[in-house]
């Protein structure tokens, strides 16, 4: 007999997460009474997901009763540094309780205790009689994980969760769930504001508890420890450690006045829920219930939001196209790779009238072809790049695209970084467009529907959603000052990328096959060296066998353990390579094996009949605006080791008397930083064309001249320069360049003394993000930061680092996008045969006839340098050769 399922939800933490998960649309989620509803909406999305996946028999949402608890009696400043809950969230909390009542879910709070204690007590009460799932945004509750209790922690808004079982806790932290409170006792908690032991962070705390088992046992043996600052801090702060452990411990015997038997769950109170959704104006939730938003009358047939449509055919297509109001077109591709996957349906529409057909032979209709190719007819689409490439396979040069729902949704942060129309539609309250996976299935079960009408309805719904969302999206873009970003960068860029993708780049298969054989020989050589150094043969690809050889047979000191044995991760091997030739050579073996399988063999598989690879650029993936390359990924070809660099020898121009021409922005992110921060010293360095890394090294190391800077000093300064851009800590910098944490801290301090306005810029960006919930680039690309107010220190710190570096990275990404648009334009204006083929981070790759190389050497830097006007000059370096390798 199956166990009962108990679901316990940490109401406060999930509501907080829900609020900031949809903070970017705060002003769009307001009901008729002016109540903000973003947290209620996101909270309900979480409930929908949990109810569907867990199917509880019993359920409770626990809330904090107030700020004063038994913990504040123990320690006055407990949670004393918490910022005030936003008023927009406070006003929604009572309605979250109403939502839960309408959903048939009980709630509970207990004076003098936190929601954690209620959850801990009930999960203990459930014991082995219940399968218990705890849903929370707070990792502190992972201490409650047992064989019968799983803790589901939200990791992205409220839509993604990570499930903590005792095994997962052990694998991730190297300790048991109960030992989490010992770790907290030693390290303290900045979010909850209790102290712990001075200078003891998470890694040290885990190491100590892994060694001693508990705080109590640690202090029984503290006198046996070698003299050190750590020992001194432990002894001095013993009382703090003991108190902090008590504060961190969830009370599993709280005096609650309810029992699990009171928490039986039987589903929604239908009428109450309908009424609540109507009050909140939650049209998408009402649609799922087949209820109209306005008056609450149940629909007897299909939801009213589905698009009505006519079937498009040879008889009516000319008449449809003659209608001047028809401005929306959709080309449905079955699959992700539109270069290879088939078009399965087409659709046309105006604001309320839609025509759809699964007969793709209509694309050969002369009237349709002419309409699609007519630049004067302005058209709305979803994913203009896909539309251009997919139609090109049918011999159609699509033009006239002026609006793209996908690109607009991406800029407005409504796409969850996905290209799936269903996700975007649902995020905007249009529940009538299913996701691709829901409609087609996935994996082996992925298939076209058996009924043509189902596919036609799917496409009609997409046409309707494009029309419905257009005004809302364009108005919001304008309100955000992002209309220029959309019209002048993202939309034109999509057309440039389509051209590049269609062109592709020639890849010489014989070169790759020769390299494959050479790498196989090299791997065999390294394999023999490893066996000789280890004194035995074993499976190098088996982490378990490698761990036994390194730590049992060779006697090396283990650095990290997993539930299956010793860890032999890259991080571990990098720490061992200086003391063990085996570790060094295994790292080398893995690098070459990855190059062999991922890049050499991988590229051979995707060369098309035209002897080219046609990568797809994902324009809507990254939150910084950087482009990504897939099928194949040509941006991540390794260049730090010779075997990786040589792969570029296979990338050739399409003609014998042509060259590969490369142009690369030099230190563009640092130049953007100099501009945004306004730091005079950094700006002067770029204006005077100094070597910025040598210039930084001279100041960090207190030298009189850049001539005194050694290559190693420059290397360390370079790591500091770029590390600062990414908000690096002293710990991270120390690890990167092989110095002590104290030295790294001094480096960073010296850096900020040299460039004081950089430090001010970073603080200003964090302040801006805290006040506005987002940061933006020079061209108004926004990145929303829902975790900027997170109580968890690590999560909040990551959001702060993101606030610092996104305007820099994002502006650099925008600059190269403008450069690509301008380059395509000047190539055409100058009547050149040169073709732009690839974008790899800050580099553009062209193929060009020998006769045009001299022209490009002047034209490309001039065009790229003028992409944007900064307070410092942009600098472009160019080169060329018979292959990409030779060009670099």
Would you mind describing this structure in some detail?
- This protein has a 6-stranded mixed β-sheet, sandwiched between helices.
- The chain is 48% helix and 12% strand.
- The protein has 37 helices and 25 strands.
- Mean pLDDT is 90; it is low at 293-304.
Write the layout of secondary structure elements.
Layout: E1 4-10, H1 11-21, H2 38-54, E2 58-62, H3 70-74, H4 87-90, H5 93-102, E3 106-108, H6 115-126, E4 130-136, E5 149-156, E6 160-164, H7 166-173, H8 180-187, H9 202-212, H10 215-220, H11 229-236, H12 238-248, H13 270-280, H14 283-288, E7 310-311, H15 317-322, E8 328-333, E9 343-349, E10 354-357, H16 366-373, E11 379-381, H17 384-392, E12 401-404, H18 405-411, H19 421-427, H20 436-440, H21 452-479, H22 483-503, E13 505-507, H23 509-534, H24 543-553, E14 561-562, E15 565-566, H25 570-576, H26 581-606, E16 612-613, E17 616-618, E18 628-630, H27 642-645, E19 651-652, E20 658-665, H28 668-677, H29 680-687, H30 692-700, H31 711-725, H32 730-737, H33 741-754, H34 756-772, E21 774-776, E22 782-784, H35 793-829, E23 835-840, E24 843-849, H36 853-865, E25 876-881, H37 884-887
Parallel strand pairs: 1-2, 1-4, 2-3, 4-5, 7-10, 11-12
Antiparallel strand pairs: 5-6, 8-9, 9-10, 13-16, 13-19, 14-15, 17-18, 20-24, 20-25, 21-22, 23-24
Helix pairs in contact: 1-2, 2-5, 5-13, 8-9, 8-12, 17-22, 18-21, 22-35, 23-26, 25-26, 28-34, 28-35, 30-31, 31-32, 32-33, 33-34, 34-35, 35-36
């Amino acid at each position: 007999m199956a166990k009962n399922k108990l679901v316990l939800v940490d109401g406060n933490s999930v509501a907080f997460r829900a609020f900031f998960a949809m903070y970017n649309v705060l002003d769009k989620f307001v009901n008729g009474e002016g109540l903000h509803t973003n947290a209620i909406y996101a909270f309900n999305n979480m409930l929908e997901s949990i109810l569907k996946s867990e199917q509880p028999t019993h359920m409770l949402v626990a809330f904090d009763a107030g700020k004063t608890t038994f913990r504040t009696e123990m320690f006055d400043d407990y949670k004393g540094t918490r910022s005030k809950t936003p008023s927009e969230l406070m006003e929604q909390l009572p309605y979250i309780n109403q939502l839960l009542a309408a959903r048939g879910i009980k709630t509970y709070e207990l004076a003098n205790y936190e929601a954690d204690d209620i959850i801990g007590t009930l999960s203990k009460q459930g014991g082995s009689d219940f399968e218990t799932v705890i849903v929370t945004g707070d990792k502190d509750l992972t201490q409650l994980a047992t064989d019968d209790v799983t803790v589901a922690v939200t990791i992205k808004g409220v839509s993604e969760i990570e499930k903590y079982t005792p095994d997962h806790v052990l694998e991730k932290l190297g300790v048991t769930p109960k030992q989490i409170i010992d770790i907290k006792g030693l390290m303290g908690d900045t979010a909850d504001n209790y102290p712990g032991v001075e200078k003891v962070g998470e890694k040290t705390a885990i190491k100590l508890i892994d060694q001693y088992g508990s705080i109590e046992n640690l202090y029984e043996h503290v006198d046996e420890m070698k003299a050190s600052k750590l020992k001194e801090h432990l002894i001095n702060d013993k009382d703090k450690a003991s108190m902090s452990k008590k504060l961190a411990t969830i009370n599993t015997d709280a005096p609650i006045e309810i029992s699990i038997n009171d928490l039986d769950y039987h589903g929604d109170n239908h009428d109450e829920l309908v009424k609540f959704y109507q009050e909140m104006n939650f049209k998408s939730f009402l649609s799922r219930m087949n209820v109209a938003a306005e008056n609450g009358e149940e629909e007897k047939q299909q939801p009213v939001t589905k698009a009505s449509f006519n079937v498009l055919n040879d008889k009516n297509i000319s008449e449809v196209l003659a209608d001047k109001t028809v401005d929306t077109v959709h080309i449905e591709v079955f699959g992700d790779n539109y270069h290879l996957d088939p078009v399965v349906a087409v659709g046309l529409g105006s604001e309320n009238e839609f025509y759809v057909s699964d007969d793709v032979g209509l694309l050969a209709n002369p009237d349709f072809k002419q309409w699609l190719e007519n630049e004067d007819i302005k058209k709305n689409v979803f994913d203009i790049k896909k539309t251009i490439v997919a139609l090109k396979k049918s011999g159609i040069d699509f033009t006239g695209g002026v609006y793209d729902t996908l690109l607009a949704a991406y800029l407005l942060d409504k796409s969850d970084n996905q290209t799936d129309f269903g996700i975007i539609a649902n995020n905007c309250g249009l529940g009538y467009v299913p996701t691709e996976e829901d409609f087609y299935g996935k994996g082996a079960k992925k298939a076209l529907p058996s009924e043509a009408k189902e596919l036609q309805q799917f496409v009609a719904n997409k046409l309707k959603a494009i029309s419905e969302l257009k005004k809302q999206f364009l108005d919001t873009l304008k309100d955000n000052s992002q209309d220029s970003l959309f019209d002048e960068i993202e939309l034109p860029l999509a057309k440039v990328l389509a051209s590049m993708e269609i062109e592709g780049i020639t890849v010489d298969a014989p070169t790759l096959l020769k390299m494959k054989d050479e790498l196989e020989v090299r791997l065999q050589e390294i394999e023999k060296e490893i066996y000789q150094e280890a004194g035995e043969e074993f499976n190098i690809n088996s982490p378990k066998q490698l761990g036994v050889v390194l730590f049992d047979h060779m006697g090396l000191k283990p650095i990290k353990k997993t539930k299956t044995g010793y860890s032999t991760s890259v991080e571990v091997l990098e720490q061992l390579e200086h003391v063990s030739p085996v570790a060094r050579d295994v790292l080398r073996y893995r690098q070459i094996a990855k190059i062999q399988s991922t890049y050499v063999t991988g590229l051979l598989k995707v060369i098309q009949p035209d002897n080219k690879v046609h990568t797809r650029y994902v324009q809507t993936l990254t939150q910084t605006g950087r482009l990504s390359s897939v099928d194949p990924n040509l941006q991540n070809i390794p260049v730090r080791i010779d075997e990786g660099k040589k792969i570029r020898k296979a990338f050739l121009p399409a003609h014998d008397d042509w060259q590969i021409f490369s142009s690369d922005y030099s230190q563009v992110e640092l130049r953007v930083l100099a501009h945004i921060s306004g730091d005079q010293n950094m700006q002067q360095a770029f204006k005077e064309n100094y070597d910025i890394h040598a210039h930084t090294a001279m100041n960090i190391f207190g030298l009189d001249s850049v001539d005194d800077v050694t290559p190693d000093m420059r290397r360390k300064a370079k790591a500091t320069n770029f590390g600062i851009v990414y908000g690096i800590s002293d710990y991270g910098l120390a690890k990167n360049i092989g110095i002590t944490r104290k030295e790294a801290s001094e480096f960073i301090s010296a850096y900020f003394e040299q460039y004081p306005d950089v430090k001010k810029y970073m603080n200003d960006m964090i302040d801006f993000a805290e006040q506005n919930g987002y940061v933006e680039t020079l061209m108004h690309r926004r990145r929303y930061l829902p975790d900027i107010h997170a109580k968890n220190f690590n999560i909040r710190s990551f959001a702060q680092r993101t606030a610092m570096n996104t305007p820099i990275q994002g502006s650099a990404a925008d600059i190269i996008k403008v450069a690509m648009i301008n380059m395509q334009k000047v190539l055409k204006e100058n009547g050149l045969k040169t073709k732009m083929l690839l974008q790899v981070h800050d580099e553009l790759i062209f193929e060009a006839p020998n006769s045009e190389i001299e022209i490009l050497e002047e034209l490309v830097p001039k065009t790229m340098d003028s992409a944007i006007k900064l307070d410092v000059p942009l600098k472009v370096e160019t080169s060329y050769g018979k292959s990409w390798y030779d060009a670099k």
